[in-house]
Specification:
Elements (H helix, E strand, L loop, with lengths): L1 E2 L2 E2 L3 H4 L6 E2 L2 E2 L5 H17 L3 H15 L5 E3 L1 H7 L3 E6 L10 H13 L4 E6 L3 H13 L2 E7 H6 L1 H9 L3 E5 L6 H15 L3 E3 L10 H24 L5 E5 L4 H7 L8 E9 L10 H4 L1 E5 L2 E5 L24 H9 L2 E7 H15 L5 H17 L3 E6 L7 H8 L3
Parallel strand pairs: 6-16, 7-8, 7-10, 8-9, 11-12, 11-16, 12-15
Antiparallel strand pairs: 1-2, 3-4, 5-6, 13-14
Helix pairs in contact: 3-5, 5-6, 5-10, 6-8, 10-11, 14-15
Length: 405
């Protein structure tokens, strides 16, 4: 396939380039001292990612510890309630720890062991990345510090408890809005002091090079599996592919398996309470080019050009930017990025739970909500949704705020 003279059959060989750029997005905007640390990580990753021993170990972990491959489920009742479009979900909620995040956390922790690091450091919003990294740290015998905003700590109490049980040190962040952006700020600051003995395991396809590339590569197992499974199930490719996008790791994971196929691809951002700045976290829809947390992408800015305050009912999506590869695919037109609001999301949460016996994460519910709207527009065909996580972590918050519908 060709979009704006980009050949997708050679896409992964060319993007990112040697400096970590997807077109004009990406790069590594860090201090000279941290740049050396990033170069060390890049060199180590390029060494081991081609290593038979590393690849075989990661495959063994995925099969024996994570429970991969995760299946695809056909949503018969939900599909029938909408019309003639057939809905399917890739069940990352059945990956160990309940979300896609462990796919890159086990890879990052394995890299840390190879590099001789003693600690892993990370941020988390919804808590799934924190739980996944705490799990990986326990598996490999590493220390683990997880930075989390105080607002998200209150919303995601079950995941906070899981992190602590797994042995992680959960560091509460109270600055600013005390959500995901502030957690990233704090984790970066800590890493700057500890980079000789620790590795910062970024939770999405963002941050300075090589993390957007590395996390995408580890998450690509989702797309590779899904493509093969869907063809085996139906004899053909899906007509459309849908995933939620905050930083965008689950989306890049599944998108990567279909970029060179005649499949319409949709990334779904959180419109939250509406289009007013501060009421949503839809950076690709409403943002402009800007640099934060060491990378250039599309971001939401305030009147001073600084990262704007953002909001989403989903803690894992309330980030004022998106991964640089998403910005690149947005500009190319290969992926269409659109939005759903909180009300549509919560409606989809309950519909999937009641009609299919699958309680989705609020983040994943954004993708389900959009797929339901898209199905009505399409009239026929099939849609594959990436169900990036399960909703156990969200139930107390949903019941407290919305009751039982």
């Amino acid at each position: 396939m060709n979009f704006n003279n980009i050949e997708f059959d050679t896409y992964f060989k060319n993007y990112p380039d040697a400096d970590g750029f997807f077109g004009k997005y990406g790069g590594s905007y860090v201090s000279p001292e941290l740049k050396k640390a990033m170069e060390e990580i890049t060199e180590a990753y390029f060494t081991i990612c081609k290593s038979r021993r590393f690849i075989n170990e990661l495959r063994r972990i995925r099969k024996e510890f994570q429970g991969r491959p995760t299946p695809i489920s056909y949503l018969e009742r939900l599909s029938g309630s909408i019309g003639n479009v057939q809905l399917y979900v890739k069940r990352e909620d059945l990956n160990h720890t309940g979300a896609h995040k462990l796919n890159h956390c086990m890879g990052e922790a394995l890299l840390a062991k190879y590099m001789g690091k003693k600690k892993v450091i990370a941020e988390t919003g919804a808590g799934q990345h924190g739980v996944a990294l705490a799990t990986a740290a326990a598996y490999f015998g590493l220390e683990c510090d997880i930075y989390m905003g105080s607002v998200d700590i209150k919303k995601q109490a079950p995941n906070v408890a899981r992190m602590k049980i797994l042995g992680a040190n959960v560091v509460e962040v109270t600055e600013g809005l005390a959500t995901l952006k502030e957690a990233v700020d704090a984790a970066f600051a800590a890493y700057c002091k500890e980079y000789k003995d620790a590795i910062y395991c970024i939770g999405s396809v963002l941050g300075p090079h090589p993390f957007p590339m590395m996390v995408r590569d580890f998450q690509s197992v989702v797309g590779i599996e899904a493509r093969e499974q869907f063809i085996e199930m139906t004899g053909e490719l899906p007509d459309a592919l849908v995933a939620c996008v905050g930083g965008g790791s689950n989306a890049m994971g599944i998108f990567s398996g279909f970029l060179n196929d005649p499949v319409d691809i949709y990334g779904v951002e959180p419109l939250g309470r509406g289009p007013k700045l501060g009421d949503h976290a839809a950076s690709l829809k409403y943002g402009t080019e800007g640099i934060m947390h060491g990378f250039n992408s599309i971001m939401l800015k305030d009147e001073n050009g600084e990262p704007a305050p953002v909001y989403s009912v989903a803690s894992g999506l309330d980030y004022p930017s998106s991964g640089p590869e998403h910005a690149f695919l947005h500009d190319l037109g290969r992926v269409k990025y659109d939005v759903v609001d909180d009300e549509e999301t919560i409606d989809a949460f309950f519909k999937l739970s009641r009609m299919e016996g699958i309680i989705p994460a609020i983040e994943s519910s954004h993708a389900v909500a959009y797929a339901m709207k898209l199905a009505k527009e399409m009239g026929k065909g099939s849609i594959l949704i990436n169900l990036s996580g399960r909703g156990d972590k969200d139930m107390d918050y949903i019941i407290e705020r919305y009751g039982i519908r």
